[in-house]
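Good morning,

Attaching, inline, the backbone tokens for the sequence recovery test we're adding to the shared suite. The designed sequence is right after.
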């Protein structure tokens, strides 16, 4: 893989690699790991699903009161990594994280399955709970609260966009001489490409 083999816009290239993984039949090709850090620099990482990828960045949704939500409120930076082992590929992004605009978030929430919308109300994401029965009871309470399909978005729920400053594409090669092409956003907003040693 040469730098010139990749799209000039790394986000367009990321979309192409996600699509290639989907076309290859990989399960959840849009799954990625998101790393954040708290105000005291304690790192945390978890797996999420990218709900949109475009020229502006990578979009995901969550409970804003969750650990990642608290991390991003205190330190609005993140790093993401995709891995498609069957294709011997990885992609990595790092940059700032911004809240998604309310209209976009509300539209996405309304398009989610009913059970997912109920769960957003029922679960205090990441907080301790006594047992499964207590969680099931919270879900049943939320389902009774919203008996029809008109389920409003919780005020504590929303979307984020990771706006990358660095994007790297990694392709496995023999003898551990992997291809690594890094895109770095310059001050004028343009992307500069360079090869990294494996």
């Amino acid at each position: 893989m040469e730098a010139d083999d990749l799209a000039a816009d790394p986000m367009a290239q990321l979309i192409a690699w996600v699509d290639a993984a989907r076309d290859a039949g990989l399960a959840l090709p849009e799954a990625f790991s998101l790393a954040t850090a708290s105000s005291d620099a304690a790192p945390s990482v978890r797996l999420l699903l990218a709900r949109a990828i475009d020229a502006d960045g990578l979009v995901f949704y969550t409970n804003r009161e969750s650990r990642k939500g608290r991390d991003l409120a205190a330190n609005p930076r993140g790093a993401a990594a995709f891995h498609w082992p069957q294709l011997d590929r990885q992609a990595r992004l790092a940059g700032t994280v911004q809240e998604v605009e309310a209209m976009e978030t509300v539209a996405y929430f309304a398009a989610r399955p009913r059970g997912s919308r109920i769960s957003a109300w029922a679960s205090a994401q990441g907080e301790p709970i006594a047992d499964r029965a207590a969680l099931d009871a919270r879900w049943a309470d939320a389902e009774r609260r919203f008996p029809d399909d008109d389920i409003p978005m919780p005020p504590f729920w929303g979307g984020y966009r990771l706006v990358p400053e660095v994007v790297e594409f990694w392709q496995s090669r023999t003898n551990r001489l992997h291809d690594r092409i890094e895109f770095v956003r310059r001050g004028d907003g343009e992307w500069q490409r360079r090869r990294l040693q494996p």
